[in-house]
Specification:
Low-confidence stretches: none
Largest sheet: 2 strands, parallel
Order of helices and strands: HEHEH
Strand order of the largest sheet: 1-2
Number of helices: 3
Length: 83
């Protein structure tokens, strides 16, 4: 997992998400771990839990919400406008 993205973001798009982050864990990360959607690799023994496998990907990308970009931009514009 790329630590530039928060695990909460990654869990939406990935079947398995791992974190090697060793600092204080955010509440959402703890919640995702409790739900089985995020695994903390915080000991050498847990490295064996990482499942490395090639995923099947569709030939074309089908967005689940094609209006998502418009919705996010709309929210950002409202925030900038003071709304």
């Amino acid at each position: 997992m790329n630590r530039t993205l928060p695990p909460a973001t990654c869990t939406a798009a990935s079947p398995a998400v791992y974190s090697i982050f060793t600092g204080r864990k955010p509440y959402l990360d703890e919640y995702l771990a409790e739900q089985g959607k995020l695994t903390f690799i915080d000991t050498i023994e847990k490295v064996d839990l990482i499942n490395i496998a090639k995923r099947e990907r569709p030939a074309t990308f089908e967005p689940q919400n094609p209006d998502l970009v418009k919705q996010v931009v709309g929210q950002l514009l409202e925030l900038v406008a003071g709304g």
